[in-house]
Specification:
By secondary structure, the chain is α+β, with helices and mostly antiparallel strands. It is 63% helix and 9% strand. The longest helix is centred in the C-terminal third of the chain and has 46 residues, at 210-255. It comes from Yaniella flava.
């Protein structure tokens, strides 16, 4: 059963026993012990004779599952995990999975509603499900046998639930999804035009086969998405600076307002 514990910055707030960690992650307990022995997973803390796991363990297991699903062997996975600082927060670890997404093929996992609730820090409400659906991270499948099943982008599930907990609403998620879809459509059209004008003639001159063209497109995808991500991050950084400057301006204006001038206004 999950329990809260005192924490400092960068530490997780929730602890799990081995059985609950296994249930939430979908990884067998014996496999969790194996990953710990092999150095893929940090050793648990101890509470008496019991092993105590944290949110870092959960998101690391999710990342391991994601990499395994894309064909990575344990040695390659360990090499990737070793590049993540040992004191990384659960969000930072989850972001590593997020940043891998553009380089990996989509691989949604089909799970039941009960399994979905087990993967998150708390049961999901219908509104939570609506947010995840709007963000494109979850799709409800037909219930042939009366069991609710969903296709879920499990690599981003932890981050999405954190967004929900911070305050994103179904309406905000819908508008966000619409805005991103519109921007994606425009970007794809412009990139398609660029490819037609500047890239395809070069490939044709070199007598590239269809397989060569497909390989080029596959290589171009992560490079272009990384460039978009950099541009997006810079735009967010600029926005934060503008908001900070505006907030400081408002504070300065309040501080410079005297009672007499307020009354005179």
């Amino acid at each position: 059963m999950s329990t809260d514990h005192n924490m400092t910055d960068g530490e997780d707030q929730v602890t799990y026993g081995l059985a609950e960690l296994s249930e939430r992650s979908g990884v067998a307990a014996r496999t969790i012990r194996f990953y710990t022995t092999e150095g893929l997973l940090a050793a648990p803390d101890k509470a008496g004779r019991d092993a105590v796991y944290h949110a870092q363990h959960l998101v690391t297991l999710e990342l391991i599952r994601e990499l395994q699903g894309h064909g990575f062997g344990l040695a390659s996975i360990k090499e990737h995990l070793n590049r993540i600082p040992a004191d990384s927060s659960p969000t930072t670890i989850a972001m590593h999975s997020t940043m891998l997404a553009p380089w990996l093929a989509d691989r949604p996992e089909t799970i039941t509603r009960a399994e979905l609730d087990a993967r998150t820090a708390r049961p999901l409400t219908d509104e939570d499900i609506a947010v995840l659906h709007s963000l494109g991270l979850l799709k409800r499948l037909d219930d042939d046998d009366g069991t609710q099943r969903y296709e879920v982008a499990t690599a981003l599930l932890s981050l999405a639930v954190e967004l929900i907990d911070i305050g994103i609403t179904p309406d905000a998620a819908k508008e966000l999804a619409y805005t991103i879809d519109e921007a994606g459509t425009r970007l794809t059209a412009e990139l398609g035009d660029l490819y037609t004008r500047l890239v395809r003639p070069v490939l044709a001159d070199k007598h590239y086969s269809d397989d060569d063209v497909e390989r080029f497109v596959a290589l171009f995808k992560p490079v272009s998405i990384a460039a978009v991500a950099r541009s997006y991050e810079q735009a967010l950084s600029d926005l934060r600076v503008r908001e900070s400057e505006a907030a400081q301006g408002r504070r300065d204006a309040r501080n410079n307002t005297t009672p007499d001038s307020t009354q005179g206004a």
